[in-house]
Recover the amino acids of this structure.
């Protein structure tokens, strides 16, 4: 990764340091519709999922992340979350993987990744799996059997 900071923080700082220059540039971006062309590349550079993908991930997988958090901390509501998650999980492979790790007390099993490699074992992911992640889907790493979601 070339840059590690969130670009939104950089833009906010820039707006404070150079309000006129930043306003002119950002206005030009909006007027020329350049933002739609530039944004995907900037998000990829900073390894940030676009807003619509983050919302999709939260909608599809947020319940499983909440369950994992509750399981790790032994929260009282974890059994209720478990029942709801089991009924809601859209992918039986993902659920089977999570359930097995939960029963074996090997949590966490869900990790967020930039989309190119597994954030647990650092194995480069096949292009097909990278594309699934970029579409808001969860995948299972072929090397370490961890569930991966795109970092948002």
């Amino acid at each position: 990764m070339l840059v590690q900071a969130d670009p939104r923080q950089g833009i906010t700082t820039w707006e404070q340091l150079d309000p006129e220059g930043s306003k002119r540039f950002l206005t030009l971006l909006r007027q020329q519709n350049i933002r739609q062309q530039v944004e995907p590349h900037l998000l990829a550079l900073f390894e940030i999922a676009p807003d619509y993908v983050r919302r999709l991930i939260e909608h599809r997988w947020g319940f499983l992340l909440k369950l994992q958090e509750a399981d790790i901390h032994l929260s009282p509501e974890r059994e209720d979350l478990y029942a709801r998650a089991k009924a809601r999980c859209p992918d039986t492979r993902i659920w089977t993987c999570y359930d097995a790790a939960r029963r074996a007390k090997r949590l966490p099993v869900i990790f967020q990744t930039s989309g190119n490699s597994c954030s647990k074992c650092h194995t480069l992911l096949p292009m097909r799996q990278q594309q699934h992640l970029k579409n808001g889907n969860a995948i299972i790493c072929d090397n370490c059997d961890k569930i991966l979601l795109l970092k948002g």
Q: What stands out?
A: The mean pLDDT is 84. The chain has two domains: 7-45, 51-150. Residues 7-45 form one domain. Strands lie at 110-113, 139-140, 147-150.
